[in-house]
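Interim report, section 4.2 (structural modelling).
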Amino acid sequence: MRYNPTRIVATLILLSLACTLPLHAAPSGKKDAAPDDARMEWWREARFGMFIHWGLYAVPAGEWKGKTNHAEWIRTTAQIPLETYNEFLPQFNPVKFDAEAWAKAAHDAGMKYVVITSKHHDGFCLWPSALTDFDVEGTPFKRDILKELKAACDKEGIRFCTYHSIMDWHHPDYLPRRKWEQTRSTEGADYARYVAYMKGQLKEIMEQYDPAVMWFDGEWEGTWTHAMGQELYDHLREMDPDLIINNRVDKGRRGMEGMSKGAEYAGDFGTPEQRIPAKGLPGVDWESCMTMNHHWGWNKNDAGWKSSDDLVRKLVDIASKGGNFLLNIGPKADGTFPQESINRLAAMGRWMDLNSEAIYGTVASPFGTVPFGRVTAKPGEKKLFLHVFEWPKDRVLELPGLANRIARVHLLVDPDTALEHSSPEEGLLRIRVPEQPPTAPSSVVVVEYVGELAAVPYVPMVKANADGTFELKAAQAEVTDPIRYEAARDCLGYWTGMAKATWLIDHKKAGAYRVFITQACTAADAGTAYTVRVGKQELKATAKATGDWTKFKKLDLGVVRLAAPGRVEVVVSPDQAPSFAVMNLRSLQLVPVNSP
Ligand code: H79
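Predicted structure of the assembly:
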């Protein structure tokens, strides 16, 4: 077979699409919408929460026998025998633990809920459980960490929630054993008895600490079944009808992408881990959980901290797609948060102090990712919040895709000063903004609109150069599937079907224009007939061989006449299905012809 990089890349892209689509399905089964809306209300409003991974693994702090890349998985990643791991019990004495300081740090960062590991995969319990000795009571510390944190959260007005691992590397009845742990006998082990133990512990947690969310994990091993997940979901909801439960209670999670595979699986929200979905997921509840560096549990050697600016923009990105951000802290063995985490929480809090109105209670906007940043929406208040990451140097902010009449535009931090703006024209709203961004890394411009929010597809309009030539670049085209803009080659590629590329030009001068195309095509694939339509006029051509997909040539296609000034659509589309791909298209040019 002939080596064809374009074909290979196209195949890879199609394959990766096939693996990730559809992005989501309903996260949960078997319930009627209305009561769920009431139950989910606070959670949807919240948008920002704190994850806390804390347990015995804070003692080794990620390091074992010279290797430094461990954390909460250390018992397995370092293959530590059970008796050796138990030796962390007498070493766990976090005397500086101050639940009120933790809850206050979450509150001041703008977080509305806290999810703490009641038990991680290692099986260690942060509360004094009557059902095991492998708990905080078995350490010198003895204090009930969940109880203290629950009280502190209540005081700060933060919802207290718990993470609980289904997988358990400590309980003798849990199965399977790790592969490297085959010497630990499974004789007499009874998984059903383990499930009863876990349910007993969950009952303790529910009764003593009344969590608002039960966040399950470690559900993927074969011993845990869909029937068990559904049963546990129903059981917990019966104990507390308001309880919110993540989708890892059941077996429907689609890997680390985290959304559920279908409505037959239990769980109230999807759980993307260490990632943010590329697009909003309308009508689906989801929460991206993420670390501040590369580990969940405390790792003293991990210096890979995300910047505060990055974290603020991630929060905005997630909110603009309709999700929650569950941002992790891995407290140290002395009971304090790492200073790097404290600094980042404080920075996010300073940003939230000025901008939280554009986060809390917002929903995904229909605009997706826009050139300047992201957009959140409050349809009930008829407000859009433009989160500007890239502040425009020319002081003109452009929102593509809005069709509504505009009531008023202002900076979120300066509601009394109305900003000048255009009325949306061809779906483009232009706003005059001050020179400096008020709250970098993301500054919020509020757009109050009239009527129901109406988003329209937007094609940026191309204006003529000084000499009257229109330069229609690949990057500016509006394309249909499967055409894609290839940045590396600066062209429209993957043109393997009857797809079209469209530009809109804004011509001021009537007259004749000569049309040129800059394209590339192999000899084997050349010859596809296509049409360039300029307004109502059509030019017919065939894709020419240029030697290679990466060798571009500029070709003369003929002359068109543009009458009275106005907007004209320019469309390139094949007349026949290509045998492989139509061409790689870099640009069109419309050059004024001087003699009339
Ligand atoms: O608690 C933190 C991690 O310790 C825990 N989840 C976060 C919140 C975590 N457990 N495992 N992992 C992270 C990564 C493991 C992923 C895999 Fe799988 C488990 C790959 C294969 C089995 C889950 C199930 C993802 C794909 C299938």
